[in-house]
Amino acid sequence: xxxxxxxxxxxxxxxxxxxxxxxxxxxxxxxxxxxxxxxxxxxxxxxxxxxxxxxxxxxxxxxxxxxxxxxxxxxxxxxxxxxxxxxxxxxxxxxxxxxxxxxxxxx
Amino acid sequence: xxxxxxxxxxxxxxxxxxxxxxxxxxxxxxxxxxxxxxxxxxxxxxxxxxxxxxxxxxxxxxxxxxxxxxxxxxxxxxxxxxxxxxxxxxxxxxxxxxxxxxxxxxxxxxxxxxxx
Lengths: 107, 116
Fold this sequence. Notes:
Shape of chain B: globular
Strand content of chain B: over 45%
Oligomer: heterodimer
Number of strands of chain B: 11
């Protein structure tokens, strides 16, 4: 199956700082999604981005499918951005999640 | 749009009993629904894929007789954990793909199962 690697595993920031999270995957995909898992466990869908670039407020994402990686950018981080960020990829229905990046934003 | 609900959100049951979890797509039809399991501090693992009206496809290592999946309609899939044991305690999350839509999956809020 597809292998998914996320880096860094942990990230600590001061409020207001910018950050970049990376997701590498081992094979061609037709689905790539970024999620933020809140403290209650719910997955908040940030981006559906199998290719290209998207922006939503302070968040943006870029997927370079030919080079098998995706980047999630968080600008002007806030304490509410804390939590675990997952990248998940799929070819067809077989979706695989990375191990996640645990982000802590300190006031 | 694209809302998926799960019920119950939290359940505690005694060892040996069975528990049913419902997953519903509220504002779209889903030919394919998925069940994931997440243990504390770990990532999500796909358990099974179900298509409306047909048998579910289970991932390697997932016992199909223990985790019964029924996808009886285009908006409802159920997961029944039979003869639950403490090691089945976990966070169960479902997702769905819209009929005719992109490959994007929409996730439910999850069900936290505790087996005592």
